[in-house]
Design goal:
Layout: H1 2-12, H2 17-39, E1 43-51, E2 57-62, E3 70-74, E4 79-87, E5 90-100, H3 107-121, E6 130-134, E7 140-141, H4 159-178, E8 181-183, E9 186-191, E10 197-198, H5 201-204, H6 209-213, E11 225-230, E12 235-239, E13 253-254, H7 257-270, E14 282-286, E15 293-294, E16 299-302, E17 328-331, H8 342-360, E18 365-366, E19 371-379, E20 384-386, E21 392-394, E22 400-401, H9 403-406, E23 407-408, E24 411-412, H10 421-424, H11 428-433, H12 443-449, E25 454-456, E26 471-479, E27 482-486, E28 490-491, H13 493-509, E29 518-522, E30 531-532, H14 535-540, H15 543-546, H16 554-565, E31 611-613, E32 626-633, E33 647-653, E34 656-661, E35 668-676, E36 681-689, E37 697-707, E38 715-720, E39 724-726
Parallel strand pairs: 3-13, 5-6, 12-14, 27-29, 28-30
Antiparallel strand pairs: 1-4, 1-8, 2-3, 2-7, 3-35, 4-5, 9-11, 9-18, 10-15, 11-12, 16-17, 19-26, 20-21, 22-25, 23-24, 26-27, 31-32, 32-36, 33-34, 33-37, 35-36, 37-38, 37-39
Helix pairs in contact: 1-2, 3-4, 7-8, 13-16
Bound molecules: 2-acetamido-2-deoxy-beta-D-glucopyranose (9 copies).
Residues 652, 722-723 line the site of one 2-acetamido-2-deoxy-beta-D-glucopyranose.
Active site: 294
Family: Belongs to the neutral ceramidase family.
Domain Neutral/alkaline non-lysosomal ceramidase C-terminal: 563-726
């Protein structure tokens, strides 16, 4: 208001009073709009959460790309969290950032979400201002990606997973939209200690010493900074790079890894009595330049029983044990505490929660200024551009190097088929697609990708449909002095720093933001175009370099493109950016070998939900004990129970049973086991490990199922254990 009065009084004091009085109304409108643009400090804010969990059994999990990792139950549901930020007076100046508990964004999923948003909201939420970012977790349900390569281990496309993500993200945006109200934003950062570690440090060392020296106090070969945008009492959005690989590849319970766990821990600390996913406070733990980060902070060791190097650190440059990658595994901080990484997961989540809490508990810098967005499609096969030193450069059609097959210390070996036909003939999807093996690379492709030795020439593999994307989404959001670079892949630590620094310099040079310009990277988002290393790291060809699919100039091409789009973030941008064509739609023609549920049956003389193994009634349980009940089950693919639960722990409160735990509490697990395929029988285990501080009292376990008869429709049933006692 004060600045408005100053603006108006300057006009009134102008040397041409008559003219000024005549034009006063339009001057005052000008003052209003100038000040809105310059000092926008109130935003329209909306936050929402929804469930995106696909089929939790008989489906390949996404992230490790391991054929053997077929899900068998649930640890924690996957969620999408939507954050809408807009200018109160100009609906068009609005962005929506979705942070989803999935391994990566995807073109097909994004396309379907945008179609749903267009149906409901017209032109309010579009390809330009909607971002689908991922937490890059590796224990969620697979089969939703549009390109062929990531579908191989899931035996093709799984429509049920895809639909759960699309519908859940739409619901999260609906909820955020319904909650829109004005509020203010603030921004800050802090150091996260013990939250990540570089998993390819020998590649990082290939970067120039002078450049590395600039970051010795910011984590050296890791970014240890968490950046956080506070929505006040309503929630926050934070960025910190760490792979979602705390839970190991040998786990088969669907979960959300460390960022989903961090969100659960934070949200339930604010509203402890709300069921997970039903809180109003929304905690966003988004991914950043994740490429070479690992949550396995103890390092990587040989798990080679009987070998002299068993328990020793892996060979540093190649991450091998006795010459092969299979035995080299990273270890998280809770390595000794369980066999699947669940304790490490909670510990890596907790350090992120602690960092976010310290930021939310301090006074952060207010965010002021306009909300803008820019988006183009960029075809990265054969993209030509000029490097800052004036030399012409180009990207190449996608290709995977040999080290891609070696995997990483977070999950050695990838995509089982690369081990040769001999060992992969169990994969029926591979049996179909192997006849379309990627074409032999041309001399031009070999030269373009050099020094990468090409294993899979995916950019030239378009049968039965494209194996890798060629066209990616390039997108930036500006909220006051904060700029989010939405990245279609996994930038390594140094690649992220170079891109952020280049865009920041351009924002300042173009007078779009002053010295307070603050740039974060978010992703893998929108499209999954694998990794992005620096040119120097690329030359080393560790896993990340081998998976930098568009060749050695990939990062420079992105730096060129993102910086060139900076002028479109101006308060009054001119023109529209040049975009390549949108990528082709592949989902409708996708192969799918994942078969549906045939039928369910209860064993003779038993009924669905009947207790097979009951809880202990004779003695009281205490904190730390696990209560287990087993029921006659049915296939949970019959009904995903989205926004619901497969189980509950109920407490008897004043004579009434009250649900106190759901399937998303980390203390509970839901496990489904097929007993007989021919008879259609299965069983379900519901486990609850009693947390310390659980009130003494009478409890019971319930199981919620849905059975499919051979003929007829699916029907719901409930199983209930006996009552049991928890002692103080
Ligand atoms: C943290 O924020 C301060 C203040 O904006 C800034 O100077 C500093 O560069 C930030 N740190 C990182 C690593 O971005
Ligand atoms: C291992 O990597 C480091 C850093 O890039 C390099 O200096 C060294 O020569 C490499 N050692 C071997 C055996 O390749
Ligand atoms: C979710 O929260 C709302 C509002 O607090 C409440 O009415 C509803 O019962 C809750 N749902 C569950 C499943 O807890
Ligand atoms: C799961 O994998 C981890 C990492 O390789 C290993 O340490 C652990 O022993 C495995 N768990 C089981 C039950 O095999
Ligand atoms: C890229 O360029 C090469 C050589 O000119 C050509 O063979 C290939 O078809 C191009 N690929 C794409 C996807 O444009
Ligand atoms: C420009 O930079 C590229 C990439 O680092 C390098 O290959 C090229 O030789 C440089 N050109 C000149 C003229 O220095
Ligand atoms: C698999 O490889 C082994 C060793 O190379 C060979 O002896 C065997 O015949 C192969 N099996 C098949 C089915 O090709
Ligand atoms: C649940 O409890 C049963 C019986 O103790 C046990 O076999 C199973 O491993 C437990 N499941 C999980 C996920 O802890
Ligand atoms: C469990 O508690 C309920 C509520 O008090 C009671 O009606 C029921 O008889 C109890 N069941 C058993 C098996 O003790």
């Amino acid at each position: 208001m004060l600045r408005y009065i100053i603006c108006a009084s300057r006009i009134l004091a102008s040397p041409h009073p008559a003219m000024t009085r005549l034009l006063l109304p339009s001057f005052l409108v000008l003052c209003t709009s100038v000040l809105n643009a310059v000092a926008q400090s109130q935003y329209l804010l909306g936050l929402g959460i929804a469930d995106i969990t696909g089929p939790v059994v008989e489906t390949n999990m996404m992230g490790y790309a391991s054929l053997g990792q077929t899900d068998s139950g649930l640890h924690q549901r996957q969620r999408a969290r939507a954050f809408i930020i807009g200018e109160p007076n100009t609906p068009a100046n609005r962005v929506v950032f979705v942070n989803a508990d999935i391994a990566m964004g995807d073109t097909g999923v994004r396309r379907a979400i945008l179609a749903g948003l267009a149906t409901k909201y017209g032109t309010l939420y579009t390809a330009q201002n909607f971002a689908l970012s991922s937490t890059h977790q590796h224990s969620g349900v697979g089969g939703y990606l549009e390109n062929l390569l990531p579908q191989i281990t899931s035996l093709g496309f799984v429509p049920q997973t895809y639909d759960a993500i699309v519908q859940g993200v739409l619901l999260a945006v609906d909820r955020a939209h319904a909650s829109l109200k004005t509020g203010s934003l603030s921004l800050g950062n802090t150091t996260v200690t013990g939250g990540n570690r570089n998993r390819s440090p020998t590649a990082y060392l290939a970067n120039p010493a002078a450049e590395r020296a600039m970051y010795v106090n910011e984590g050296d070969d890791q970014d240890t900074t968490m950046s956080l945008l506070s929505f006040g009492s309503r929630g926050f959005l934070s960025w910190f790079p760490v792979h979602g690989t705390s839970i190991y590849e040998n786990n088969t319970l669907v979960s959300s890894d460390n960022k989903g766990m961090a969100a659960y821990l934070y949200e339930s600390s604010i509203e402890p009595n709300a069921m997970p996913g039903n809180q109003t406070f929304v905690a966003g733990f988004a991914q950043a330049n994740v490429g070479d980060t690992s949550p396995n902070t103890l390092g990587a060791f040989c798990e080679s029983p009987g070998q002299p190097y068993d328990g020793q650190p892996c060979q540093a440059n190649s991450s091998t044990c006795g010459g092969t990658v299979e035995d080299c595994h990273g270890r998280g901080p809770g390595f000794t505490l369980d066999a699947f990484g669940f304790h490490s997961n909670e510990m890596i989540a907790q350090v992120q929660v602690n960092a976010a809490k310290s930021l939310m508990g301090s006074t952060l810098a207010p965010v002021t200024g306009s909300v803008r967005s820019v988006h183009v499609y960029l075809d990265m096969a054969n993209h030509t551009f000029t490097l800052p030193n004036g030399t012409a450069a180009q990207t190449c059609p996608a290709a995977m190097g040999f080290s891609f097959a070696g995997g990483t210390t977070d999950g050695p070996g990838s995509f089982d088929f690369v081990q040769g036909d001999n060992s992969t003939s169990q994969n029926p999807f591979w049996e179909i697609v192997k006849s379309f093996i990627t074409p032999i690379p041309s001399a031009a492709q070999v030269a373009c990708q050099a020094p990468k030795p090409i294993l899979l020439n995916t950019g030239y593999a378009t049968f039965p449909y494209a194996w890798s994307p060629s066209t990616v989404d390039i997108q930036m959001f500006k909220v006051g002095n904060l700029v989010m670079l939405i990245i279609p892949g996994e930038l390594t630590t140094m690649a992220g720093r170079r891109l952020r620094a280049a865009v920041r310099a351009q924002l300042i040079a173009s007078n779009i933001i002053d010295n307070s310009a603050y740039v974060v990277v978010a992703g893998p988002a929108n499209t999954y175009a694998h990794y992005i290393t620096t040119r120097e790291e690329y030359a080393v060809q560790r896993y990340e370099g081998a998976s930098t699919i568009f060749g050695p100039s990939t990062l420079d091409a992105y730096i060129d493109k993102y910086t060139s789009l900076v002028p479109f973030l101006a308060d009054a941008p001119t023109g529209t950016p040049v975009s390549d064509a949108a990528p082709p739609e592949l989902t409708s023609g996708a192969l799918s070998l994942n078969t549906g549920v045939v039928f369910d049956a209860a064993p003779i003389g038993k009924s669905f939900g009947q207790v097979l193994i009951d809880v202990v009634k004779s003695a009281a349980y205490k904190a730390g004990d696990t209560v287990v009940a087993q029921f006659v089950g049915a296939n949970p693919r019959n009904n995903l129970r989205l926004e619901g639960t497969f189980l509950s722990v109920d407490q008897l409160v004043s004579g009434a049973w009250t649900p106190v735990r759901s399937d998303s509490h980390p203390s509970t697990t839901y496990q489904w086991t097929r007993v007989s395929t021919i008879l259609g029988t299965s069983s379900v285990n519901v486990n609850w490990t009693i947390e310390s501080g659980t009130p003494a009292g009478t409890y019971r376990l319930r199981y919620f199922g849905d059975s499919k008869p051979l003929i007829g429709s699916i029907s719901a049933f409930t199983g209930t254990s006996s009552n049991f006692t928890v002692a103080a």
